[in-house]
Amino acid sequence: MVKQRRVRAHSCCAAVAPFCCRRGSLKTLTEPAIFARETSCDCRAPHEKLTIAQARRGTPVDRPVRVYADGIFDLFHSGHARALMQAKNLFPNTYLIVGVCSDELTHKYKGFTVMTEQERYEALRHCRYVDEVLRDAPWTLTPEFLEKHKIDFVAHDDIPYSSAGSEDVYKHIKEAGMFVPTQRTEGISTSDLITRIVRDYDVYARRNLQRGYTAKELNVSYINEKKYRLQNQVDRMKEKVRTVEEKSKHFVYRVEEKSHDLIQKWEEKSREFIGNFLELFGPDGTWKQVFQERSGRMLSYALSPRESPCNSPPRELSPLRSPSPPSPPARWHNARPSPPTSPKGASASMSSMSEGDEDEK
What we know:
Layout: E1 4-5, E2 27-28, E3 34-35, H1 52-56, E4 65-71, H2 78-88, E5 94-100, H3 103-109, H4 117-125, E6 132-135, H5 143-148, E7 153-157, H6 171-175, E8 179-182, H7 190-199, H8 201-210, H9 222-281, H10 286-303, H11 343-360
Parallel strand pairs: 3-6, 4-5, 4-7, 5-6, 7-8
Antiparallel strand pairs: 1-2
Helix pairs in contact: 8-9
Catalytic activity: phosphocholine + CTP + H(+) = CDP-choline + diphosphate
Region (Disordered): 303-361
Function: Catalyzes the key rate-limiting step in the CDP-choline pathway for phosphatidylcholine biosynthesis.
């Protein structure tokens, strides 16, 4: 969505275009505010003096209320913009003129500036609340200056501004009933920004040396230049070490996370193994039942042996005569009878041989 705002009134009091300066007229913001000429009010009618009550009621209807705000606006920041926003919204129909003092006046009465006057002019031209920028604004507002630019009211914060030998340069404006106060933004000012730069000078000098500025451009001595460059190298090494530490911490965290998972899985497997072992070898386990069944079978076999087959003939033994062990088979072919030691032995052996032949026959 394109940002819109009121039409800037180059000729804010022109009767032919009374609606150009009204709040309802809108146009696209594509151009900065204009620079003031000798006077930006071309109305030939006498400039009527307004009271604050009349201006807040929206009168006069044929022209906007011309409000003037001046300042140095060095290092233009949000505090400046908020003050101009308040000045712009003081009345229902406001034409805001912003006066910016030159470098010569500022250096004479206040001190050295960071930005040049041209840079400060351009910063104000690109603020959305500004309708007109007046260059080389006077340090003290005279009645002639107010009449020349047809200024109805002057907007500034209500704190007495002592400068150029005066306790308050806006004292006569307040006495004339033309002063409208605005509120300062706490926590930010040009002095605060400069204090930050002075406090952290070494940091900014090292940063700009690293970006390519020379020591001469930064008004840095040779020794300080070498010191800053060495500090930059040390900072780079610290950054590398910090990066390695972060990566190491991340790696250790991942290892710990995986180790925790492995330990958890190992515990689960251990519990499963112990459960299976107890189920198998425990007091009421499966292995005990199997062992008991096998023991019972073996005991039953020992107590009741198998019976002999029915078709085997029974062997009757004499109760008075035990069976003699079988005699070893006779070896007829190779065995040679030992010679008898006596004639009675020889006759006995011969008779036994004859009985054996008869048996074979």
